[in-house]
Amino acid sequence: MKKKNYIDYIANRPRVERIGGHGLFTDAGRPGYDRGEQWMALLRSKRAMLCREMKIDSASLRWYAALLKIL
Q1: Within 13 A of 52's CA, how many CA atoms are on the CB side?
Q2: How many whole angstroms separate alpha carbon 25 and alpha carbon 61?
Q3: Rg for the chain (alpha carbons), in Å?
Q4: Residue 51 scores a pLDDT above 50
Q5: Which range (12-16, 20-24, 44-48, 52-56) has the least confidence?
Q6: Which residue in 70, 65, 67 sits closest to 6, CA to CA?
Q7: Which residues pair with 22 in a beta bridge?
């Protein structure tokens, strides 16, 4: 239940940049760094490095992210 609540929070929190109906994206889908698409591409491109540095088996990694608009 805590995971579901957290994911809902990062998907819908104030100032989140929505892609469709919410702000979630993962490396499974959904180019400067002034737009959400650019941040998504960056995070996805660093997945292998993050797993290696954090000693996480990439097959076990599940991640979620959301972008906040800065006003």
Answers
A1: 4
A2: 14
A3: 13
A4: yes
A5: 20-24
A6: 65
A7: 19
| Other CB atoms within 10 A of residue 59 CB | 6
Alpha carbon distance 64, 9 (integer Å): 11
Say if CB 16 and CB 68 are below 8 A apart. Answer: yes
Q: Is the pLDDT assigned to residue 66 strictly greater than 60?
A: yes
Write a three-state SS string for the chain: CHHHHHHHHHHHCCCEECECCECCEECCECCCCCCHHHHHHHHHHCHHHHHHHHCCCCCCCCCCECEECCC
Q: How far apart are CA 26 and CA 66, in angstroms?
A: 9
Six-digit token string for 18: 């929505």
